[in-house]
Amino acid sequence: MSENRLSGASFVFRRLACAGRSDKHPVGSPSLVLPLVLLLMGTASVQILQRPFLRAALVLSLPAGFTAEEVSAALERFSLAQSVGLLGGSLAIVGKVLLLGALLYLGVLVLTGTARYREALSLMSTAMLTTLFASWFVLLILAIRTPGAVREMADLQPAIGLALFFPHAPLLVFTLLNDINLFDLWFVIVVARGLSSQGMLRPGGALCLSFGVWAFCVAAQLSFLAVLNPRT
């Protein structure tokens, strides 16, 4: 039942992807600009709305001996970093779409011998809209808890997947389990349905490639965490 709802919801994204297509592209050819713009706007809104929680975590992380002037200076640097972060977040989203679109393109090219990078890019930008729902869901959880409930940076990433059952797992294990959730499943389904509905791959191959892209994202995230936290 859950998979039927998710696959049914992916119909909305397929319709969205086709909105704004030009006559140069065949009917059903996905649009790139509209999903990407929505993705950038949604990401910026998430960054702005999570600022109070990041600020609370920053204040708690400051040494107890900090004077009022030092705390004020730290908060000023935080505000500046957040403003710069809006641009950085947008560039990161564009880079992620380009990278995953290239990965999807190469996968289709290897499996079929023919592929169009623009179609892969458009499909990926549309599928990544599902990640916004995950971010907004996390923000909802944080809003219910209020910024005062933030005690450490880990509180900014509540469990929304299998990590719910293992709240005290090591960081890498917790992150891996947390990536197994309904939102990531939705992403896999949207990519797979897009690949098959656009005639790029058969359903079985589309699902395998979609899962491979998701696994690549998870592996990259875990590798990044392992570099930042070598003892975890």
Describe what you observe in this structure.
With 232 residues, this protein is mostly helical. The chain has 9 helices and no strands. α2 runs antiparallel to α4, α6 packs antiparallel against α8 and α8 packs across α9.
Descriptive keywords:
72% helix, 232 residues
* Element-by-element helix/strand order: HHHHHHHHH
* Percentage of residues assigned to helices: over 70%
How many helical elements?
9
Indicate the mean pLDDT: 82
Radius of gyration: 20 Å
Number of strands: 0
- Label the structural class: mainly alpha
Shape: elongated
Main β sheet profile? none
How big a fraction of the residues is strand? under 5%
- Low-confidence blocks of residues: 19-29
Task: Give the termini distance in whole angstroms.
Answer: 37 Å
In brief:
The protein is built from nine helices and no strands. By secondary structure, it is an all-alpha fold. Helices cover 72% and strands 0% of the residues.
What does the secondary structure layout of this molecule look like, with pairings?
Elements (H helix, E strand, L loop, with lengths): L1 H17 L14 H17 L1 H11 L6 H45 L4 H11 L1 H17 L25 H8 L3 H16 L5 H26 L4
Helix pairs in contact: 1-5, 1-8, 2-4, 2-6, 3-4, 4-5, 4-9, 5-8, 6-8, 7-9, 8-9
